[in-house]
Specification:
It contains 16 helices and no strands. With about 300 residues, it is mostly helical.
Length: about 300
């Protein structure tokens, strides 16, 4: 690494020695004065402890940045298809509960935000996806109860006078199992339907690489086995989902999900006749059969 340091040093030092305070101060806070001086001031990559810390911080920030958009493709797929077909609400419910507990546990423990920040961003996106799935399934009342219950849960978990840290530790142990269990309904839904439906490949593979990176950052920065075991188990289930995504990549059940809906919308006259014969409206006939079956 010394040879690499000697190559990088003449290029990087003119920049790192003249960083503005607005950038230097957060970096010092992130890496600590010692590792900031070693890695960015001296450009010494031979210090293995600081190098691992720097890699861990970079991975953590990268995961948080990616998490801000990781579920956007999934949201767009649901909105474009106007269907939550192939997506398990139960899976999203369990995952959101697990993330909420993990967020409260990490925040109250005072762990570095770079080791858990993505949980807040992904939880918010999960809520949006869950509401869409319920809406297109015609279960708006359930969606309202879901939001109200989640908001109350966040308040209770973040309030020290309501839930003790000792009890929250037990909840965190359960959250690891809950996070693993959250993947099982989605695995089952894909297998049962013989395709991935509106499930986003971008989200699935980002989860896979993100959970692998989190194992590394947890080993480097957080001395907590509860969190580590949760990430290891999550990676294993994410690998199963990724395998299913590859296996069903070109399956008819995945590629032709939207065909019936498109046929109805393109032939409104026929849809109206069908609706009159069945006593239902054309718009409902074009959406609800597939989503209600899979709720």
């Amino acid at each position: 690494m010394e040879a690499l340091s000697s190559i990088v040093r003449p290029i990087a030092q003119p920049i790192t020695h003249n960083l503005p305070d607005a950038l230097r101060d957060p970096l010092i806070s992130l890496l600590g004065p010692k590792c900031y001086h070693i890695l960015l001031h001296d450009i010494n990559l031979a210090d293995s402890d600081c190098l691992r810390l720097g890699i861990s911080k970079a991975l953590g920030l990268g995961i948080i940045g990616a998490s801000a958009v990781v579920k956007i493709p999934q949201l767009l797929k649901i909105l474009n298809a106007q269907s939550g077909e192939g997506i398990s609400f139960l899976s999203y419910l369990l995952e959101t509960l697990a993330y909420t507990i993990t967020l409260a546990y990490n925040a109250r423990q005072g762990f570095p935000f770079s080791t858990y920040g993505e949980t807040a961003l992904i939880a918010l996106q999960n809520v949006a996806i869950s509401l869409l799935v319920l809406h297109y399934a015609g279960r708006d009342a359930t969606a309202a109860v879901f939001v109200a219950g989640l908001g109350a849960g966040v308040y209770v978990l973040m309030t020290e006078g309501t839930v003790s840290m000792n009890f929250l530790s037990y909840l965190q142990a359960g959250a690891g199992a809950l996070g693993v269990a959250s993947k099982l309904p989605q695995v089952w839904t894909i297998w049962q339907e013989g395709g991935t439906g509106q499930l986003s490949a971008f989200a699935v593979f980002n989860y896979l690489f993100g959970s692998l990176s989190r194992i590394f950052t947890t080993l480097q920065e957080v001395d907590d086995k509860l969190i580590l075991y949760g990430f290891v188990a999550g990676f294993a289930l994410n690998a199963v989902l990724a395998g299913q995504m590859l296996y069903y990549w070109n399956s008819p059940s995945s590629s032709n999900q939207s065909v019936p809906k498109l046929q109805v919308s393109d032939k409104e006259g026929r849809g109206t006749k069908m609706a009159n014969s069945t006593g239902s409206s054309p718009s409902k006939g074009s959406k609800t059969p597939s989503t209600r079956r899979r709720g």
